[in-house]
Design brief:
It contains 13 helices and 8 strands. The protein is α/β, with parallel strands linked by helices and 401 residues long.
Length: 401
């Protein structure tokens, strides 16, 4: 397996460990051939389900998913299918002019659903702008994700309602927010954990490096979940690091693990392990989910300008949804009726999202000036007055409504 750390850890709270986890020292082992890797020189990754849908044994992580029921497996499948359906609908809505922008998660469903379903309700999530699958797992209604992309609000949900922070566009900054939050959780004496999502490109940001340093030194109960989707807009991962990203953790003194990002079971198991470490006072973990951004960076991007079709085709064969479907079918965990019902449910979700977006009220023109400062500000007042004059200059001025 591919977990690395040279850290000597001091349990902060009661250390409870299970088989396959620990606070013991681990060293690198890169003996297995990579699956899903771009090059044959890529290191091994944790995989429990092959692209063909075959369950493979893993002594270290099997314990986290061994008891999973057929119903729970169908649940993971449903989560991924509905998330993909919602995502496709949002892309279409952008193309129809209903959204200003959309960042698709296509291809990353397993990384997000696997890690998202590993969380407890009291854990806290700091996402980027692409974590629609994690949002789904947290119970944030998909329609609430779309207001910001339509430009009618600044967020769309109450972060405290689902312990799911607002989307963060400033690359990597949420890794620091998560670290600070996790330090607070530890000071409160709670045994909940915090998870920060970010991308391969974000791993080059100073904020992420600072978060790694702080979380390691303060033994913060945080999981860094890096979805390495191979691209940061048009910049390939090769331009981000000379070493596989999960190995970065070693230099900070905590474990890093690379997981097959298209294998929902492996993501569930590895994230559970990392969360358990956090809860047991063993500090941070870096999980690198090795996956692929199947679509454009956002709807403003055209990936045909910088990458070849054959790369995408190779990843299509590792599709996260297809491999779980194969496993469900082969193990008789789902029948045709289940898949047919899910298809109907998907279409209903698409319709609901379409209707909700079109019905979103436009915000008051002056709302943008609210909540800039708690007590108001002369410059904001001046800008508001200028804007009011501008609005009033139109023949059909309606007072900004
Ligand atoms: C601090 C900062 N720098 C640059 C940008 C512009 N930007 C938006 S997305 C992005 C690439 C991020 O790539 P990655 O972290 O791999 O995440 P992905 O989009 O692939 O999920 C960049 C550079 C930004 N939003 N914030
Ligand atoms: Mg990326």
């Amino acid at each position: 397996m591919t977990v690395e750390s040279t850290a000597a850890r001091t349990p902060r709270r009661s250390a409870g460990t299970k088989a396959g986890t620990t606070g013991t020292k681990r060293t690198s082992s890169t003996t297995k051939k990579a699956t899903g890797a771009r090059k044959s020189t890529e290191p091994a990754l944790v995989q429990l389900l092959t692209p063909e849908g075959k369950r493979v044994k893993n002594a270290e992580f099997d314990g986290y998913v061994d008891g999973i029921t057929a119903e729970e497996l169908r649940g993971l499948y449903r989560d991924m299918v509905l998330t993909r359906r919602f995502d496709a609908e949002a892309t279409s809505l952008q193309r129809q002019g209903e959204l200003g922008l959309w960042a698709s998660l296509l291809g990353q469903e397993a990384a997000q659903i696997g890690s998202g379903r590993a969380l407890r309700d009291d854990d806290y999530v700091f996402p980027t702008y692409r974590e629609h699958g994690v949002a789904w797992c947290r119970g944030v209604d998909p329609t609430n994700l779309l207001g910001m992309f339509r430009g009618v609000n600044n967020g769309g949900w109450d972060p405290n309602g689902n312990n799911f922070h607002l989307y963060t566009i400033v690359i990597g900054s949420q890794a620091l927010h998560a670290t600070g939050y996790a330090m607070g959780v530890a000071k409160d004496g709670a045994d909940s954990a915090v998870i920060a999502y970010f991308g391969d490109g974000a791993s080059s940001q100073g904020d992420v490096a600072e978060a790694f340093t702080f979380s390691a030194v303060y033994n913060a109960p945080v999981v860094f979940f890096c979805q390495n989707n191979q691209w940061a807009i048009s910049e390939p991962t090769e331009k981000q690091s000379r070493v596989p990203l999960y190995q970065r953790a070693q230099g900070y003194g905590f474990p890093g693990v690379r997981v097959d990002g298209n294998d929902v079971l492996a993501n569930l198991a590895v994230t559970k392990w990392a969360l358990e470490r956090a809860r047991a006072g063993e500090g941070p973990t870096l999980v690198e989910a090795f996956t692929y951004r199947m679509g454009a960076h956002t709807t403003s991007d055209d990936p045909t300008r910088y990458r070849h079709d054959d790369e995408r085709a190779a990843w299509e064969a590792k599709d996260p949804i297809l491999r779980l479907r194969r496993y469900l079918e082969v193990s008789n965990h789902a029948d045709e009726g289940f898949f047919a019902e899910l298809e109907t449910e998907s279409e209903a979700l698409g319709k609901r999202v379409r209707e909700a977006v079109r019905a979103m009220p436009d915000p008051d023109h002056f709302a943008i000036f609210e909540n800039v400062y708690a007590d108001g500000h002369a410059l904001v007042d001046e800008e508001r007055a200028q804007f009011a004059a501008y609005q009033a200059s139109f023949a059909d001025a309606d007072g900004g409504k």
